[in-house]
Every structure is written in structure tokens, then in C-alpha cells.
Amino acid sequence: MVTAVVRAATMVMLLLLSCSACQAQLSPTFYANTCPNALSTIRTSIRSAIARERRMAASLIRLHFHDCFVQGCDASILLDNSPSITSEKFVTQNDNSVRGFEVIDQAKSAVENVCPGVVSCADILAVAARDASEYVGGPSWKVKLGRRDSTTASASLASSQLPRFSDSLQNLIRLFGSKGLNERDMVALSGSHTIGQAQCVTFRDRIYNNASDIDAGFASTRRRNCPATSPNGNGNLAPLDLVTPNSFDNNYFKNLLQKKGLLQSDQVLFSGGSTDSIVNEYSRDPSTFSSDFASAMIKMGDIEPLTGSAGIIRRICSAVN
Ligand code: HEM
After folding, report:
1. Using CA positions, which residue lies closest to atom 16 of ligand 1?
2. Which residue's CA is the nearest one to ligand 1's atom 41?
3. Which helix (H) or strand (E) holds 20?
4. Which of 147, 150, 160 is nearest to 84 (CA)?
5. Is 66 part of the annotated catalytic residue set?
6. Entry's Pfam families (predicted)?
7. For the structural domain made of 38-162, what CATH number should be given?
8. How high is the mean pLDDT of the chain?
9. CATH number corresponding to 169-299
10. Which of 120, 70, 119, 78 has its CA nearest to residue 100?
11. For the CA atoms of 176, 250, 260, 96, what is the dihedral angle to 10 degrees?
12. 3-class DSSP state for residue 30?
């Protein structure tokens, strides 16, 4: 009797396992028949947004990251507050900081015009991140598609699972590890801080109170536009890569070797710990960084997608249908 129960339970487990594996099948050709112009439509929309404001490339890459780390890449970050949704947009790591929502909305409405109800917001985020990287001179890759959109968001998961600028290396490794991303993936992905901006509030502590782990000249330059006392100048911006803030290259890693990482979470990647050798390697070898970044973005895009009949295709990205 007991054996029969164990056998049945094992069968159920195996079925569940094989089903979750078969569900996780994303494919670059997912829309080839149902919306052959999806990718070109998104691309046109994203390129024109970045042409208007170059920083948008950075913002879109970050938006995809902050989507994937919370309930998987399911566009949960795009949902606004409603009676049934507590939006992720207002947790500390996102509030007044993640941007690009209107650009995704525009791309979605352009795609809805050509194929209504077919292409998910989660896929648009993934494609936008790739198109953004490519536009500013970064790597390109084939985006796997077929994600569906969530009907839920989770502010509490966003708060506990998105990394913070003050995190230790150990904590960062743990957070990325919990998403199936190893140290090499984490360092490569952090290399997207080769573009974009950060607000004074995120690096104030580092430039005033961290004398041993920061280049003195760099700290003093950054202090000029970031007053010592909060909330003065909290929102003042500085480039994450001081050398080439508008192009996607490997200067971010060269900066870390010189203790010129802007955020604490940048500098901990090169501060005597287990990721030093990876930072060293990427600083010397831009093409390895490029190909590792592309692979890590694909891996990140694979985090817990909703596929098959799970989730929905939202009509607009900010609300459930
Ligand atoms: C390792 C942990 C990470 C931490 C703690 C972190 C934290 C931050 C912070 C605090 C900012 C500045 C936000 C602001 O001041 O408003 C920022 C910006 C940015 N992050 Fe990260 N980040 C991490 C990893 C990543 C990853 C993995 C990616 C992409 C795959 C990424 C992409 C970006 C980009 C592109 C920007 C600039 C955004 C813009 O200019 O709008 N970050 N990050």
C-alpha cells in the first residue's frame, strides 16, 4: 500500500517536473507566424525613443532586469496600483528611479496596431533591452520569445529580491544565485552600468564615508554635485561610467580597477573577493565581456517565464485585462 502511494507520488512529481521543463520553452521564432512584424515594429519604436533621449537605452535594460527578478520575466513591474494590484513601482529600489514605462507603452500600442492581442508586454521588455544594447554599441543577441504577462505583481518580493546599492558582495551573490545566475553572470550583467545614471542618494555614503575603497579624486569630483546632507541634491545625477557614459563598452570594469565604481554594489565586485578575477578579465578583454553579457541577458530572460496557457496577453501593459 505504502509503496503504491510512494510510486504514485513519484509519478506525479515526474510529470510536474517534465511539464515545467516543457513549459519553459521560449523560442526566437515564437511570433514568426502569428505576428511576423512584431520585432521590427518594436525595434522602430525603441530606436526612436533612444534617438530622442540616449539615456533611455540604460533605463530599458534596467526595466527588463527589475521585471525578471520579481516573479520572473512576466511584466509584473509594469502594473499600476489598482484594487487588486499593489504595484512594484513604489518599492525603494524602483520608486522614482526605474523609468521607460511610457516607451514600453508606445511600443506595445504600435504592436497592437499590427497584431492585436498577440505579443506580451514581457516579451516587449526583453526585445527592448536587446534593441537598446545594440543601439548604444553593445552586444546583440537573439531574444527568446513566448513569455506571457502576469495578472499579479508583488511589491513584497520586489522589496526583498531586487538588489540594493548598499548590498555586500555576499548578498549580491546570494540574490543572483537565487535566480539561477552565477557570479560570472552577475559581473557581466552589472557591466550594463557602463551606461546610464545614478542619483546622489544612491552614492552619497560612498563618496563621503568610504575613504579607503574609493579613488580620492573621483570622490571629490562626485561631491561637487552631491551635497553631504540628505535630502539636498538627492536626485542629482552622475554617470555610472565616468569615462564613456553613453556607450556600451568595458570601461566600467577599468573604473573598478581604479576604485572609481560609483555605487558600493559596483565596487564590491572588485574589492578583494571572489569576483575580482572576472572584473580583471572583462577589463582586459572587451569581446569576452560582450559575449558573456549577451549570454547572461538570455539567461536572465529565461527566469520563470509564464508560458503556454499560464498568464495572459495584456491589452495595455499597465493593467490586467
Ligand atoms: C548587482 C546589483 C545591482 C544593483 C545594486 C544595482 C543598482 C542600481 C542603482 C542604485 C542604480 C541607479 C538608480 C537611480 O539612481 O535611480 C542603477 C542603475 C542602472 N542599473 Fe543597476 N544595479 C545592479 C545590477 C544591474 C543589472 C544586473 C543591470 C542590467 C542587467 C543593471 C542595469 C542598470 C542600468 C542600465 C542603470 C542605469 C539606468 C538609467 O540610467 O536609467 N543593474 N542600478
Report:
1. 97
2. 59
3. helix 2-23
4. 150
5. yes
6. peroxidase
7. 1.10.520.10
8. 94
9. 1.10.420.10
10. 78
11. -60
12. coil
